[in-house]
Design a protein that fits this description.
By secondary structure, this protein is of the alpha/beta class. The chain is 29% helix and 15% strand. The protein is globular.
């Protein structure tokens, strides 16, 4: 059984020779192989030299195609529609974004100790720092909010995660602040993790803080419209990021919606 096959690149093809039967489990609406650190031109040259026009769908055998995608060219995927992790309000975003409302949430509204399920929180003085993918005020606010949550009885025993929706720098900034302000024993007990969406794929936390990083403060100019991204990579990251939260999702941003 190959789990998270949508993250497995073509190097995982060797697994198929190890079994008489194989079950490939994945989600092509989640993060796909990124080909980071690979010589893509060399891989494509080898593909064109040895398998071009010899095997079906030879063009798919590159650094960014997953084992799940390759299997999908031959076998009809079976979609699992029942969702057990998130409250309905949280998975509702992903349901609309990526699954055409085919997902059936099974958690009851009263199964969580905290409410509301989704909390939009604007950092009034937050600003993305030039060309850097860092928003210090937003990072400080997320750590402060997390610490405040942990002091409340409703959050007793709950785990926490932070996902940056714009690069790794913001997650690293927040991680440093957490190490400075929160006791290591608490970090371990609460399983506090900071990263981007791909770091959380296949994982979950009771409470997730999303950091949008970007801002549209006066003098910054209009905010660039973010589309789905190359190979729908941004859409995939947003889907994964939101659906990691089981009980509560904080959307921490620095956007002035009146502009």
């Amino acid at each position: 059984i190959v789990d998270e096959a949508s993250q497995s690149d073509i190097s995982s093809l060797g697994i198929l020779y190890m079994a008489k039967k194989i079950i490939i489990v994945g989600d092509d609406k989640q993060v796909s192989p990124m080909a980071v650190g690979l010589d893509i031109d060399k891989m494509n040259a080898l593909r064109d030299m040895y398998i071009k026009d010899i095997i079906p769908n030879w063009h798919l055998y590159d650094a960014k195609t997953s084992l799940y995608d390759i299997a999908g060219t031959t076998f009809q995927p079976l979609m699992l529609r029942e969702h057990f992790r998130c409250l309905a309000e949280i998975i509702g975003y992903s349901n609309k974004l990526s699954y055409d409302y085919k997902i059936k949430p099974l958690r009851s509204p009263g199964s969580s100790k905290v409410s509301p399920p989704i909390v939009p929180y604007r950092v009034a003085d937050g600003r993305r720092e030039g060309s850097q993918k860092i928003n210090t005020k937003e990072a400080e606010m997320i750590v402060a909010l997390m610490m405040a949550c942990m002091e409340q009885k409703e959050y007793e025993g709950m785990t926490f995660g932070v996902i940056s929706l714009l690069g790794d720098e913001q997650a690293q900034k927040i991680q440093r602040l957490i190490l400075q302000k929160i006791d290591p024993a608490v970090i371990e007990e609460r399983r506090i993790l900071c990263g981007n969406a791909s770091h959380f794929q296949g994982d979950e936390r009771d409470v997730i803080f999303l950091s949008l990083v970007d801002s549209n403060n006066e003098g910054d100019g209009p905010l660039r419209l973010a589309r789905e991204g190359s190979d729908q990579s941004r859409k995939q990251r947003y889907n994964v990021a939101v659906s990691r939260a089981k009980d509560q999702l904080w959307v921490v941003h620095s956007l002035d919606l009146s502009k």
